Amino acid sequence: MNTTDPNYEQEFNDAFRKWLGFCQNMINENYRTNFPNLDIPVLRYETGRRYIRVINGTSVFAFIDLTNGDVLKAASWKAPARWNRGNLFDVNVGTKSMTPYGPAYLR
Q1: How much is the CA Rg of the chain, to the nearest whole Å?
Q2: Per-residue pLDDT reduced to its tens digit, 6-60
């Protein structure tokens, strides 16, 4: 992580766990309500040099920028879209634009 703040890594990890838990709960509720006969997918993640890739089954759910906590929509399997959809360090812990299918499109 490219930061000089010694507490950044712990703050980032705490915020990321809150965000991931919120997203998983949103997916769980969506599947219980709309798809009761299907298995509920579990979010998993892979950490790269610059981004965390959050995976939902076989598709990318979102990317998280390790340097600043930005929540990004996926443009492809390997790359995030250009503009952020939230930030792990904002009041909503980056959840304001989240849907059960990933970050919302920009309007």
Answers
A1: 14
A2: 789 999 999 999 999 999 999 999 999 999 999 999 999 999 999 999 999 899 9
DSSP string, 9-78: HHHHHHHHHHHHHHHHHHHHHHHHHH-TTSPPP-EEEEE-SSEEEEEETTEEEEEEETTT-EEEEESSSS
Phi, psi of 14 (to 5 degrees): -65, -45
Longest dimension (CA), the chain: 48
CA distance 47 to 63: 10
CB 62 within 8 A of CB 103: yes
Question: What is the value of pTM for the model shown?
Answer: 0.90
